Amino acid sequence: MSSVYHLSVSEDEIAGAQIALLPGDPARVEKIATTEPIKNGRFIASHREFCTWLGDIRRTPIVITSTGIGGPSTTIVVEELARLGVHTFLRVGTTGALQSFVNIGDVVISTGAVRLDGASAHYAPIEYPAVADYALVWALVEAARTLKIPYHVGITCSSATFYPGQERSDSFGRYVIRELKGTKREWQRLGVLNYEMEAATLFVMCSALGLRAGCVCGVVDTPTQEEISAENLQVAEQNAIRVAGTATEIFLERHKP
What we know:
By secondary structure, the protein is α/β, with parallel strands linked by helices. It has a single domain (19-254), classed as 3-Layer(aba) Sandwich (Rossmann fold), CATH 3.40.50. It contains six helices and nine strands, in the order βαβββαββαβαβαβα. A five-stranded mixed β-barrel has the order 5-8-7-6-9. α2 (71-83) packs parallel to α5 and α3 crosses α6. The longest helix is centred in the last third of the chain and has 25 residues, at 230-254. It is globular and about 50 Å long.
């Protein structure tokens, strides 16, 4: 099979990988591919926002590809990797907490997502739920427990935008349209744990297509600390990477490709 258009990788190049780890940031791909339990990480391709490496866990190939930010580019990655034989997708992201009991450096393991992403509506009507695969949620929880990394399990809100959709006060316009005003408080009241931008798209798309999807994100800011420091980003990112890698290993013990 020739290379898929956007990712510029072929079936031969991913060596039969059936599991993909999906960070948003291209710079996070190498970090994941070179962090235990992943071994033999090696670069495959980089095209636009899509950077791809390959590694292995217990001799099982694992592909790591960046999605860029948001739902539209995430759909491209899932579509093209699925065409190459990948059936299990685990997002490895960063996130902003909505609840006061969630701290910087904790990880959030999403069971479902509020569909404010926009892109998921191209795969299923809005009444269709955005839910994670149970086996992946279980593996992520087991991984966090094993690593003794503080974790929270629950609902995520996936916003199509970083600034107005999350009612951030540091936007250029400092203005939020009427439809979005007060939504942050509402999600907090409803027990939503965090904001990010891709989980709802990933969950709906994979459920609709008969694929597996999960999501773990490291917390980089909280309701009382919106500014994201380099130090907080590094800690949150590393915790999410470690949980994702260990969860993949646990998942493979029960679900051989």
